[in-house]
Amino acid sequence: MTIVKQMDIRSHIKKYFDMAFNGETLIIPRKENKNVVILSEKEYKELEKARNNAAYLARLDLADEQIRQGKIVEKTMEELEAMAAE
Fold this sequence. Notes:
60% helix
């Protein structure tokens, strides 16, 4: 992780974008702690995937808890096929 001043980013944007593309995370401090982070698209997608996986696992945990509490609906195969045909 590298901390970079705004004016350095402006002066050497290609250098810092190349660093981010090569896996370096850049932090640009701003007033009132409104900092900005630059990272590669690959890293961003990995973070998004992890966040989505966490949300999916939370939904699975909720469904598991509902099953344990008996909050389920049972359907026969014929009922499911009839629903699909509608």
